[in-house]
Amino acid sequence: MAATFFGEVVKAPCRAGTEDEEEDDEGRREAPEDREVRRQLARKREVRLLRRQTKASLEVPLLEKYPCSKFIIAIGNNAVAFLSSFIMNSGVWEEVGCAKLWNEWCRTTDTVHLTPTEAFCVFYHLKSNPSVLLCQCSCYIAEDQQYQWLEKVFGSCPRRDMQITILTCRHVTDYKTSASTSSLHSPFLKALKTQNFKEPPCCSLLEQPNIVHDLPAAVLSFCQVWKIPAILYLCYTDVMKLDLITIEAFEPVLSSGSLKGLVKSSPQSTEILKKLVATNEIQSNIYT
To answer: Could you tell me the pTM of the whole model?
Structure first.
């Protein structure tokens, strides 16, 4: 129904039925070759979890095969470098799987020896405490692949007796504030948590109307729906490539409950971090 200028109520023409009919007609008119191309593209965009050493696919969701009490997820080069330098050198970590995927922005590598310039998504557990799981994800996971990733990692009915910590970066221009942008000293850290996460965060909470994006948002939303305690630490920076100052901005997270017991030697970690950044600069110069 709709009202005219003179106040009469008249019936507005409805195109809902005709539009549906047109879509059905288009579907019927689709050539078999087009349907096959669409199927092949869907198969190509499928997210698979496998073991790189054997190339064998994991038949069950990762967290069903490897139940955990703590799951730390680093998304993006700087967050990955932070975990590599400050966490992974403090213990013996064993690879338990990797995600293989393709989209318009990235293709994950199958090589066993990874370099900072490659796209990868690899899962590890701590050999001395297998209930601690870690994910290093330097690749972009497209919007239509995020649900697949969540399903392959968490499963359709995840346990609630675990704690998720997510680390990622975003460019400082995405940060919304009423204060002057000149007063922002980047990089800086903000936190966003689910309702069931009860520990105090290591930094101030992200203010409205700021939002999070991509895989970090998908994981946090998933945890909120399933009542899993989870916290996202978001570093706002003006340097999105591998950057020493940006990586060090995550250091307050080392005092969190999830990471506190995993860190041993900080001076050694800083040295490893410097080498990692230097190696990345050399490799980046080779390809540019």
So the answer is: 0.81
